[in-house]
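Marked as duplicate of an earlier ticket. Keeping the data here for the record.
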Amino acid sequence: MADSEQHAQVPAGTVLLPAQTAWPLVLAFGLALSFAGLVTSYNITALGIVFAIAGMIGWARQVFPVEHHEAVTVVPHTMDLEIDRRRVARIRIDESHRSLFPMQTYTVSSGILGGFAGGTAMIVLAELYGIVIHHSLWYPINLLGGAGVAGWLNPSYAELNSFNLRATIIAIIIHTSTSFLVGLLYGALLPILPKHPVILGGLIGPALWTGLLHSSLGLINPFFDAHVNWWWFAVSQVGFGLVAGLVVVKYGHVKRMRGAPLPVRLGLELSGRDEKGPE
């Protein structure tokens, strides 16, 4: 009822549009701080939760019980369309038409499956590094899950080589969620390079991800940045991408005929069709 009354009071020459609000940005900022606190400090996570709750409440108040609107003046203008041609140009429909490409692509779900498979391969490579270099299975796990966590700042070398339940749980959460998110992003980017998923996952993706972390990790987690072996980290990323790409190639290949004409999608061969297309 209130919304109908609000629309009835709109002056002539204006329209009602949703009111501008900054609460979604506050919510996004709070979520970013909450996840950043997993590798820095619980205080940052707590601050992020406060911002996230404030953003959700503020955004909800913009919608309930009545949506907030603002009146925008409509400025009329004319548009002149000039058509020089008297005949309509017909698009040639054949196998080389752009609307038919890509004829084959990969599903987003295959990217997620590849992300989990690549994450498993990365665990094997990381544990191999821990055994060969540090003679411990727990060194890479503690380095990921324990360094920088509140209450366990700057652990000693002996502590990094020993089992820590909290660090192990946090490492599992971080690695599983990261594998899922990277796989999801990988699946979303697959249509860009539908013929080269292994190159995208095994070379381009690891190079960009390793370069990004190498340049920013010193600010996010200095302890981890000082103890990580970047050459081995790059090898692990390449292993992640190669395995993910191979899984996508094996399980995610599908045909994409959405832009094809109906006879092409049905697999019909029309003998009377003009190859040059209609004039």
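See parent ticket for discussion. The first helix runs from residue 2 to 8.
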